[in-house]
Amino acid sequence: MINLGIKGRILLLALIPVTGIALVLSTYFIHSQLQSLDYALNNHGQALARHLASASEYAVFSGNREILEALAKQALSEGDVVTIIITDKRGATLLDFHNKLAETDNDERQKVRIFSQPIIQQIITNLDEDEAFYTKKDSANPTQEILGWVAVKLSLEALQTEKNESIINSVLITFLGIVLSLLLATRLGRGLTRPLLKLHRAAEEIQRGNLDVHIKQESTGEMRTLEEGFQSMATALRKSRKNLQQQIDRATAGLHESIQTVEQQNTELKQARQKALAASEAKSVFLANMSHELRTPLNGILGFTRLIQKTHLSSEQQDYIETIEKSADNLLHLLNDILDISKIEAGKLTLQKSFCNLRSTIDDALSLLAPAAQDKGIELISLFYQDVPETLFTAADRIRQIMLNLIGNAIKFSPAGFIVIRTMLEEETDESVLIRISVTDQGIGISAENQKRLFHSFEQLDDSMARQYKGAGLGLAISRSLAELLGGVIGVDSREGDGATFWFTIRCHKLQRKQDDQTPMPQFSGYSVGIYDPNETSSLSLMHMLKTSNLNVYPHQHPETLLRQIASGPKIDIVIMATSLDSQDTEFLQSLLSKRQHKSDFNIILLVNSVDPVTLLFVHQQYGCLCIPKPLRKQEIISALESLLSPHSPQQTAETLADNNAIDSLSGYKILVVEDNEINAKLVAHILSQAGASVSLTENGQEAIDSYRNTPFDAILMDIHMPVMNGIQAAQWIRSQEADDEHIPIIGLTASLLDTDRERYFQAGIDAMLVKPADNEHLIALIRKLCTQPESSAMTCIMTPPSVDAGTDTPPPIQTSLTSMLIKEIPDVRAKMQTISTAEDWQQLQEVSHKFFGGLGYCDAKELRAAASRLHRCLISREHSTIAGTLADVFMEMDRLLAAHKNDRT
Question: Treating both helix axes as pointing N-terminal to C-terminal, what angle do 396-412 and 475-485 enclose, rounded to 10 degrees?
């Protein structure tokens, strides 16, 4: 729709009706005039033809051509007659005359209209007796006879000329009428738009701030009223602006004083904020540095404590050593918490996410805290609901850390009873899930007032609790920050004296392939299991684990009901009995054993709330039953059932389970170690050989691939940074060659503590990462776990906590040998580093320092290792300005170590 102004609308209103009426009338009159001209021509032609037909009757009858010519000439004297043609009744032409004036025209092109009339002879019927001869049966009038025909051709040129003149005159008259209407409408529109444009210009002046505009009142009627109203508005605006300006001036004076005051306060606040930030940064740096520095002697204490424990000690000395180890370990945990808090406050704590098994992560945390809980007679119960996906993409180590804090607190503040860990699905989308994990205890509870003080650093409910239960008050603060980093929140529900439920949520990405989400369950269709557990919650946990196994499960809270079912049915194949080994349970167990002797068609599995291998072995030897420690692991229960119910699997005894928990042997394992550093390779080979493993050594990824092709291995230890082919490339090649049902565990080794590419390692197919130097027991336990865990949890990523000063319990002879190897390498490494630093090839210097740094952890060279660590961090963070100083420190420590070695030899 075209937007028209008032002038345009007036023109349209004036022109559209006038133009329409003029066109209609003009069309009507032109049409009528043209019809009249055609009618006149037709009448003229018909009259002329009738006249000639009547006049030529005698001439045609008598055959007198002269009379016919005279009549034709007379008719041709009229200007519009072109041709006269007279024929007899047989069609023969008697006369064909043309107008001389028209002979020059082309007859074919000349537009003519033909008029014809018959030449009729009037006959008197009673003239003689031959009446029948003159009678014409086909004629309408029997007294007439057609003698011939007269045809007259009239030219249409004159008619067309008259029509054109009529059309032109009508169009001119119509056009003049429209023009006059346009002029009148334009004049009328100008009379309306001129005042409006004047008001528009005045409005623009007011918009620019000129309120002194004056409008001349020249119009009449409504336009004059509009002009007067506009002028009144301008006057009112002028007065209003004057009043506002006066108010603004008064307010500005007061505001200026307020702004000066606020600016001064802002300056003071900014300075205070900068001081607070500087103090916080200094505190964080101090905490990080102190915790870092304190870890060195603590690692030394722990390392030598472990070495002393391997020697012959008296019982009193063993007790002292254990006390020292516990104290140092507690202090190390406190330092780790302080380091985590400092990282969180500095915003430098990052999550290492990967696909992991959530159920296994929770079970690991329960296993670590089980001894502490069992010492107080507390049972740990895990309720992992069926709709919770097991394999998730998240930071398993941080979830485990939160669980350890919450469960540890629950054990600390619970005198007895049981602690329930529930894992539930809160929310699910196509790509992610929200998981809620809660820890419910039966402890002292927390009042509503004290709940507000939780989750803050160094916060205890009161001093008496701090003395009674110990602790620095950091665990909940760290847990809150970790839960937020994991996309969730943390909270508590509690009443004083009625226990507490600490809970937290995490948001995780899930596997897109549903079939890979959970571990495949063996199917025991047709078998029945009777469960006896006085604790209803513990019984429910076990039923959740067995829900998808197709077993017929019969839970019992009372011994009598279970004995009745064994006696009278339904049939039970396995009895799973939870026992606390008290007199009542012992009596009931004896009854079960007696029933089994008389009716040996069921097996017994004992669930013992203890992880002590000696206790488990004693119970097995005492009662001859399969023993499983609490807290329960789903895979252990399923494996035990499979060993008892599967006809192809031998029964696994409790003695075997106890041995598995007690021994870290690698006997029978074939392990490939891929390490380019001779010191590292020698030490790792020694550790694995001492554990009973068969070890093969290679120096780079290509040699590892060649060995993998020729020899089957149970596990591969792969250094990340190597010449020829690095560990990532080798791991990717090995994974590409594996069949669907094959998966050899690959453990990555790296000395790079600041390496941010760990996620890339796991994507390449590396199952776990260890930071060199690796703890001996941790290394052996990790190999056993990866080699024995189900294939579905092979994606679980295990990351050892990085520590520059972490030590190993390397035997002194091995350490001396490794240090001697280091002494031999130092001159060549020093010369190479000197040459590279002169050329400022920092990338190559980083590679050389990385390889050298990786072997220092196993040698007696702590100062050199610390200097090399600082150099390595500078190279990774590209702090080129500090490289020269740190490199000089490394050279100084090298010279000092060489000098000390020389003095020892002399």
Answer: 150
> Could you give the residue range(s) of every CATH 3.30.565.10 domain in the chain?
353-516
SS3 labels along 728-770: HHHHHHHHHHCCCCCCCCEEEEECCCCCCCHHHHHHCCCCEEE
What's the whole-number mean pLDDT along residues 135-150?
63
Angle subtended by helix axes 880-905 and 842-856, to nearest 10: 40
Distance separating alpha carbons of residues 618 and 610, to the nearest angstrom: 12
Greatest extent of the chain over all pairs of C-alpha atoms, in Å: 186
Which residues lie below 8 Å from residue 53, measured CB to CB, with a gap of 6+?
117, 118, 119, 120, 149, 150
670-799: in CATH 3.40.640.10 = no
Name the CATH architecture for the domain at 6-100+110-164: 2-Layer Sandwich (3.30)
Nearest to 85 by CA among 154, 151, 153: 151
Question: What pLDDT is attached to residue 68?
Answer: 82
Q: Which residues contact 800 (CB under 8 A, 6 or more apart)?
A: 769, 770, 771, 774, 775, 778
- Level-2 CATH architecture, domain 812-905: Up-down Bundle (1.20)
Q: What tokens does 478 get?
A: 């760290």
Q: Which residue has the tokens 């104290």?
A: 327
How many C-beta neighbours within 10 Å does residue 813 have?
Answer: 9
599 or 433: which leads in pLDDT: 433
Residue ranges, comma separated, of all CATH 3.40.50.2300 domains in the chain are: 528-662, 670-799
Question: In what helix (H) or strand (E) does residue 439 lie, and over which residues does it extend?
Answer: strand 432-440
Nearest-10 Cα torsion for 303, 305, 309, 311:
80
Contacts of 740-746 spanning 24+ positions with Cβ under 8 A: 741/791, 743/791, 743/794, 744/713, 744/714, 744/715, 744/716, 745/714, 745/715, 745/716, 745/783, 745/786, 745/787, 745/794, 746/715, 746/716, 746/718
* pLDDT 10s digits, 830-853: 888 888 888 778 878 877 777 676
Owner of token pair 């302080």:
338
Quick one: which of 865, 504, 332 has its CA closest to 340?
332
Confirm or reject CATH 3.30.565.10 for domain 353-516, answering yes or no: yes
Angle subtended at Cα 386 by Cα 381 and Cα 387, rounded to the nearest 5 degrees: 130
What's the whole-number mean pLDDT along residues 406-425? 91
d(Cα 734, Cα 732) in Å, to the nearest integer?
6
pLDDT tens per residue across span 786-826: 887 644 333 344 444 444 444 445 555 556 666 777 777 78
Task: Record the tokens describing residue 94, joined without a space.
Answer: 């008697």
Angle between helices 583-598 and 559-568 (to 10 degrees): 0
Q: Read off the pLDDT of each residue in 396-404 and give the average, rounded to a whole number.
A: 89
Angle between helical axes of 880-905 and 812-839 (0-180°, round to 10): 140
pLDDT of 862-876, one tens digit each?
777 777 777 877 777
Copy the structure tokens of residue 261: 């005051």
How does residue 650 score in pLDDT terms, banded at 50, 70 and 90? very low
The phi, psi pair for 146, rounded to 5°, reads: -80, 120
In the block, residue with structure tokens 């069926």: 386
pLDDT digits (tens, 9 = 90+) for 614-624: 678 778 877 87
CA pair distance 578, 360, nearest whole angstrom:
22
CATH architecture type of domain 528-662: 3-Layer(aba) Sandwich (3.40)
**In sequence order, what are the residues at sequence separation of 6 or more whose Cβ sits closer than 8 angstroms to the Cβ of residue 647?**
none
Give all strands of the β-sheet with 112-122 in edge-to-edge order: 93-98, 81-88, 144-155, 112-122
CA-to-CA distance for 170 and 164, rounded, in angstroms? Answer: 10
588: Cα separation from own chain's centroid = 56
Is residue 218 very low, low, confident or very high in pLDDT (cuts 50, 70, 90)? low
Q: What is the Cα–Cα distance from 358 to 423, expressed in whole angstroms?
A: 9
